[in-house]
Design brief:
five-stranded antiparallel sheet; 7 helices; 14% strand; transmembrane; Rieske_2Fe-2S
């Protein structure tokens, strides 16, 4: 819009207006209204070659932003977390943090710089005077707003400058990918770790009190013994994570007292091995009623019948205790036949 197209009533008054603004200050009106300065055309307004150069500059900035976003993702995947580099004058810093900060910062900077250069060189810079008006918009004003919006869209040349539009949309679409990639750091993916323990074929049952492998003769009828897999060391950094799934309750029953057929098949001479982890919220079960063969969780009183497949007979637990199939090895020690056939501990949404 040129100054000749501005409505006459919006131009600065020659002598005064409703607010008392005047061209020249006097005693009555000490504040003068100098009006709008003459509009000066930019080189891009009169030279299409200069406009093309500005368009290519903006497109280059948006393209660099896209490449920086790709570099951000590549750095996140390729650079080890523990790698350090020397950067003067900062010193030794994390290579991953440095790369992520530089690439994401450059991607965001180029989008901002491209938008600023676009506005300053290609969008209309004609100043328009507009008188204050009531807050409530009249139909004429609404129509004018719509017309101004259409005019602004036309003056932004986004429809005509397809190279800018496409690269800008590409840059804006790719920058959020950096945030999506960062979601990976919410925690390691569990994979199938919730379905498996360190129990495997041939793993000996070790008494958690004596740290010695168990023989059938070490387990008396009616007794309760806690066991863990051979090779698990309490000094290992992942001991707590593993023992939270590996801990066993070893109980010896009279074979005639075992009601569940599979439980009897998976036992050895009445010795049964059940997970010690309650299937409600994962508390360790430590109470055993010798006469009833019931195991009681001290947290929420879930009760399991260890003579009937470890099924739940009371409390909020959702399913029976998993049983570990055991046998006796050639050296006479109790050992596992395989891992648990089902996940131990509380249910999870992938459980199947």
């Amino acid at each position: 819009m040129s100054s000749q197209e501005i409505p006459e009533e919006n131009l600065p008054a020659e002598q005064g207006d409703a607010h008392g603004a005047v061209k020249v200050a006097d005693e009555k009106n000490p504040f003068a209204d100098p009006g709008l300065p003459p509009h000066e055309h930019r080189i891009q307004d009169i030279d299409e070659r200069a406009a093309k150069r500005s368009e290519r500059t903006v497109a280059l900035l948006f393209t660099v932003s896209m490449l920086s976003t790709i570099a951000f993702i590549a750095a996140y995947v390729a650079i080890p977390v523990d790698k350090a580099i020397y950067v003067w004058p900062i010193g030794h810093i994390s290579a991953l943090n440095f790369a992520l900060g530089m690439t994401l910062g450059l991607a965001l900077f180029c989008i901002g710089a491209g938008a600023v250069h676009w506005a300053r060189t290609l969008m209309s810079d004609v100043e328009i005077a507009d008188e204050r008006h009531p807050i409530e918009a009249s139909p004429e004003v609404r129509a004018q707003v719509h017309a101004d919006f259409k005019q602004g869209a036309a003056e932004s040349v986004i429809g005509r400058r397809k190279l800018i539009r496409h690269t800008m949309l590409g840059a804006l679409a790719m920058v959020p990918l950096a945030g999506v990639v960062l979601l990976r750091d919410l925690g390691p993916l569990p994979g199938t770790s919730l379905r498996h323990t360190t129990w495997a074929k041939g793993k000996k049952l070790v008494n958690m009190n004596t740290m010695e492998p168990l023989r059938p003769s070490d387990v008396a009828v009616g007794s309760l013994t806690f066991a863990m897999p051979d090779g698990l060391n309490e000094h290992d950094h992942d001991f707590q994570k593993n023992i939270a799934k590996d801990a066993l309750m070893i109980i010896r029953l009279q074979p005639g007292d075992i009601k569940d057929k599979r439980e009897l098949e998976w036992s050895h001479e009445g010795i049964v091995a059940y997970s010690k982890i309650c299937t409600h919220v994962g508390c360790p079960i430590s109470l055993y009623e010798q006469q009833t063969h019931h195991a009681l969780c001290p947290c929420h009183q879930s009760t399991f019948d260890l003579a009937d497949g470890g099924r739940v007979i009371f409390g909020p637990a959702g399913h029976a205790l998993p049983q570990l199939r055991i046998t006796v090895g050639e050296d006479g020690y109790l050992e596992a036949v395989s891992d648990f056939e089902e996940p131990v501990g509380p249910a999870f949404w992938e459980r199947g």
